[in-house]
Design a protein that fits this description.
With 122 residues, this protein is mostly beta strands. It has a single domain, classed as Jelly Rolls (Sandwich). Helices cover 7% and strands 43% of the residues. β1 and β2 form a beta hairpin.
């Protein structure tokens, strides 16, 4: 049976895996052979202090293709480029960046790439 011939339905309400880290969590579902992640970053979350100790890298090396559900996430690329991601936007981020929550609302993103090893101790 080909993948396209099989119907699947998953919910982030019952994720296959949950990874928690300071001021955030990642909920993962595997569907259609792909791993999709919903990340919730609480106010005050900053990759450099929350996830970097787990990753052990200078900056985030995971590429991301994400839909921004709520909150505001600020991104600083290693090359100095900065962007601010708002609800309803879609971002594509290559490896080599830092990120943090702006404001008092949690930032929630659904990521279609790059969450396989995210926030996993190395």
């Amino acid at each position: 049976m080909s993948v396209s011939a099989r119907v699947e339905l998953k919910s982030f309400d019952k994720p296959d895996e949950v990874r928690e880290f300071p001021k955030g969590r990642l909920e993962l579902v595997t569907i259609g052979g792909a791993m999709i992640g919903r990340a919730v970053f609480e106010p005050g979350w900053h990759w450099a202090t929350s996830v970097q100790p787990l990753a052990g890298t200078r900056s985030c090396e995971a590429p991301h293709f994400q839909y921004h559900v709520s909150g505001v996430l600020r991104i600083l690329m290693d090359d100095g480029q900065e962007l601010e991601c708002h609800p309803g936007e879609v971002s594509l981020l290559p490896s080599g960046h830092d990120a943090w929550v702006v404001g008092d609302e949690p930032a929630v993103v659904v990521d279609f790439q790059g969450m396989v090893d995210y926030a996993r101790a190395h």
